[in-house]
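Reviewers asked in the last cycle whether our approach scales beyond single polypeptides. To address this, we selected a multi-component target totalling 246 residues and predicted its structure end to end. The input consisted of the following lines:
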Amino acid sequence: MDVIERFATGDLDAFESLFRQYQAVVYRWIVRIIRDPASAEDLTVETFLRAYRAHARFRPDGNFEAWLRRIATNAALDHLRKARVHVELPDDLPAGATPDTAEQKESRTAIRSALASLPPRLRIVVQLGLVEEEPYRAIGDSLGISESAVKLRMFRAVRILRKKLHDWDVRP
Amino acid sequence: MNDNELNDLRDKLRSVIAPPREPELKRDLWPAMLAHLNQPPRIRVPWFDWLLAAVAAAVLIFFPGAIPALLYHL
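The resulting structure, written as structure tokens, was:
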């Protein structure tokens, strides 16, 4: 019996082995969604906790990583819904030659506010599809929805964002 | 929505939220995982159950005559 099959029967040693193998993968995926390394650690643990509790529902012939990624995405979505987290400016922005003008600062704030105001299920699609350039199919798999549903969510999200940015007269 | 519009929006978003550098996990999370596994499961009572209990309590307090009928049906 291999490690995945043993996990499906609830074997804790098998779970530990899978945890050590996939914790970094799950962590990176969550950071890409919520962009907060500290919360991502907690959510990585939460993801594996959910996976362990649901071990009986996992089919050993299925794709373990894809299953885990879906659980991680749901955990990240729950976090976004609960926290209504505002996107922080990362410290790895492309360095500009000149400091921001007041107008540029205002634009950045408006763009961040527009993104943060999106419902989490739309925001996650924008985050992964537009910023991270993940393929729609991969996004759909991680959310448990079809590729066309991802396209529809992207269309709606972009329409909302464009309208807000237009109303606020934001230029790049 | 055409590709130009999408690219324009992508540029705007990336001007405020650049993709993070490949984030690396800095510590082993297994000890934290074990601590969670060893915790007794929390029992969550749905809000609807609390509401039902409150309504039942209110009925019994304001209409004590309903208690024998309730006991009969139990």
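Chain B has four helices and no strands. We regard this as preliminary and will revisit it once experimental data from Aim 1 are available.
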